[in-house]
Write a structure and sequence with these properties.
The chain has about 425 residues and is of the alpha/beta class. The chain contains twelve helices and 19 strands. Helices cover about 35% and strands about 25% of the residues. Helix 9 links the parallel strand 17 and strand 18.
Length: about 425
C-alpha cells in the first residue's frame, strides 16, 4: 500500500489536495456537507491505490527484433508479445521500452485489457544513423486504475541487442586476376585466368611418369620438367582496413573513416558472395576469418563497433598479413599514407598476388585553403606513386566519391591512367559537394 501511495499520479495527488482543502474549510465554516465531500475526495484516490496494490498480475513478455542487424539509416521493427498468465483480467497498461538516445525517443504504447491467459502483440520501429551495438530494453509496464489516479511500475529484466552495421553498397562484378591460391577445391575458371602455359611444374624425379613431362617448360628451362599433381585452386582475399586515427579526417557519420568502414564492408560481402575465402585484418590486432560458420555475421558485427585506433602500429599490421597470407588478393582500404608508409606497404606484394589500394584523400573531407589543398594533393599523389611502382593497383577516392563507380577501376591494367582518372573525378566531386 505504501508503494501504491507513492505511485499516485498528479490527478490522484490533486484529489488529496482538494480533499484537504475542503476538509479544512468544512472545519472552519462548520459545514458538514462540505466535510462529506472532502471525505469522498480523499477516499477515491485511496481506493484506487488499494485496487492497484492488490492487483496481482502474472505477465510474460518476449521481444523480437526484425532484423537483428540493420544497416545505418535503415529501420528495424521491434515486436513485443505480452501474455497474461493468470486468471485475473488486467486493466489498461502503458508499455515503455527503454532505448538508447541513438535509436530515438522511448516508445510508449497503450495495451488494452488482457483477459485470462490472453496474449497480445504490439510493435514499433527504431532507426539509427550511427553504427554500433545498442541495447533494447528492459520493458517497463505501468499499471493504472480505471480513473488514472494511481500508477505502479513493473519492469522485465530481459534485454536484446540491435546491431547497426555500416551501409553496404552493391558492387558491379569485375574480373580480378591473381586472386587464386592453392589448397582448395578445384575451380574450372582458374584455367581461364592462368592458361595452360602457366601449368605448375617441377623438376623430373626418378620414377615419374613420362606422360607428365611438360615439354614447353622443359625447352624453356633446359632440363626435364613434369607437371605437378593436379593442384586444387580457391579464391582467397584479404581485406585490410586502416583504422589509424591520424589517417582520417572529419567527424561523425560524414567522416572519412565511416566512408572507409562502409567501403570495407561492401567489398568484403561482395567478394564473399562471389565465393572467396575471406579474412579481414586491421592495425589494431583484429584478424577475422569470414569464411567459416557465420563468417559474414562476425565480420559485420566487428565493423559495427570498430573505432579509430589511438596507437596504430603499421609494422604489426604488415607482419600479421605476411604471417597468414599465402598469396591471392589483397585489398587495402587506406586513409592518409605518407610516401614512407607507402614504401612499407609496397613490400606486401609478392609474386602471383594482386594488391589493390583504395587510397582515400582524407583531407578532402575538410575545407582547406588553396595552398594547403595543393600540398595535400601532392603528398597524396606521391604515396600513390610509391604503391604503383611496386605493382599495386591504386584507386583514388575523395569526399563525395561513390564506391560502385570506383570499383571497376580495380580491374584495369593501365593503372596510371586509372588513378589519374579517379583522382580527377573524386576531387571534382568533392569540390562540388
Amino acid at each position: 500500500m505504501r508503494e501504491a501511495l507513492s505511485g499516485l499520479t498528479t490527478r490522484g495527488r490533486s484529489f488529496l489536495a482538494a480533499a484537504g482543502a475542503a476538509g479544512l474549510s468544512a472545519i472552519l465554516l462548520g459545514e458538514k456537507d462540505l466535510l462529506r465531500i472532502a471525505l469522498l475526495l480523499a477516499a477515491v484516490p485511496l481506493l484506487a491505490a488499494l485496487y492497484v496494490s492488490r492487483t496481482k498480475y502474472r505477465l510474460a513478455c518476449s521481444r523480437v527484433l526484425d532484423p537483428r542487424r540493420a544497416s545505418v539509416g535503415a529501420s528495424a521493427r521491434v515486436v513485443l508479445r505480452l501474455q497474461n498468465m493468470s486468471r485475473i483480467p488486467t486493466g489498461t497498461m502503458l508499455l515503455e521500452d527503454r532505448l538508447p538516445y541513438a535509436l530515438g525517443s522511448r516508445p510508449r504504447l497503450v495495451l488494452e485489457r488482457l483477459g485470462a491467459h490472453q496474449t497480445s502483440t504490439v510493435a514499433y520501429t527504431v532507426r539509427a544513423d550511427v553504427r554500433g551495438r545498442y541495447e533494447v530494453g528492459p520493458l517497463v509496464v505501468r499499471l493504472t486504475d480505471p480513473f488514472g489516479l494511481c500508477e505502479l511500475t513493473r519492469s522485465f529484466p530481459s534485454t536484446d541487442n540491435l546491431t547497426v552495421i555500416p551501409q553496404v553498397t552493391a558492387l558491379p562484378e569485375i574480373k580480378l586476376a591473381g586472386e587464386y591460391a592453392g589448397s582448395g577445391e578445384s575451380r574450372a575458371r582458374s584455367v581461364a585466368v592462368h592458361g595452360e602455359d602457366d601449368t605448375a611444374t617441377r623438376e623430373y624425379r626418378h620414377g615419374d611418369d613420362l606422360r607428365r613431362v611438360h615439354w614447353r617448360s622443359t625447352a624453356r628451362v633446359g632440363e626435364l620438367m613434369v607437371r605437378r599433381e593436379e593442384q586444387p585452386w580457391e579464391s582467397k582475399a584479404t581485406i585490410v582496413l586502416d583504422t589509424r586515427g591520424t589517417a582520417h579526417r572529419g567527424e561523425g557519420p560524414a567522416s572519412s573513416f565511416e566512408w572507409s568502414v562502409s567501403a570495407a564492408a561492401s567489398i568484403a560481402l561482395h567478394l564473399r558472395r562471389e565465393g572467396y575465402k575471406l579474412r579481414m585484418v586491421t592495425d589494431t590486432g583484429a584478424d577475422i576469418d569470414a569464411t567459416e560458420g557465420d563468417g559474414e555475421g562476425a565480420l559485420l558485427d566487428y565493423l559495427a563497433e570498430v573505432k579509430l585506433a589511438t596507437r596504430p602500429d603499421l609494422s604489426r599490421l604488415m607482419e600479421r598479413i605476411r604471417r597468414r597470407s599465402d598469396g591471392g588478393l589483397i585489398i587495402a582500404v587506406l586513409g592518409l599514407v605518407t610516401p614512407e608508409e607507402a614504401e612499407q606497404l609496397a613490400g606486401l606484394r609478392r609474386t602471383g598476388s594482386t594488391c589493390v589500394a583504395l587510397l582515400l584523400d582524407s583531407t578532402s573531407w575538410l575545407q582547406l585553403p588553396p595552398s594547403q589543398r595543393e600540398a595535400a594533393q601532392r603528398a597524396h599523389e606521391a604515396s600513390a606513386l610509391a604503391l604503383l611502382r611496386a605493382g599495386w593497383r591504386v584507386v583514388g577516392a575523395g569526399h563525395g566519391a561513390r564506391l560502385p563507380a570506383l570499383w571497376p577501376q580495380a580491374a584495369r591494367s593501365n593503372q596510371g591512367f586509372a588513378y589519374r582518372a579517379a583522382m580527377a573525378e573524386t576531387v571534382s566531386t568533392g569540390v562540388q559537394s
